[in-house]
Amino acid sequence: MLSITPFLWFDTQAEEAMQFYTSIFPRSKVISVMAVTWELEGQRFMGLNAGPHHTFNEAVSFFVACETQQEVDTLWDKLLAHGGKPTQCGWLKDQFGLSWQIIPNVLPRLLGDPDRAKAGRAMQAMMQMVKIDGAALQRAFDGA
User: In the chain, at which end, N or C, are there fewer CB atoms within 10 A of the end residue's CB?
Assistant: First the structure.
């Protein structure tokens, strides 16, 4: 069976990044430290210290679907630690410049609702947010 593994080009911090990410996600493990290899929530990653020739940008991001607001809040805070930068609509860049989307599962459900007026209110609320607040989205969806 084929597998696809994200391979991340770092300047000099591949091992530091691996240690950081595996400290955040509970189902993680370090696999190799040659070309660093780790697993987060069942997804394998590889990284390499290859110099400053290429840098990360928003063209690729890691989408994390969260069951609860507590998961959103916890991951958001941990990924921003040590110099990360929040952007908008649930996106952030971590200290290594990788883009993440930390999204509560309620968001796609509300935005995909057949009642386009309700979905539109949820969309308008989301567009005003940096970190996604699922309860606030639900209130906007409900017209409250």
Answer: N
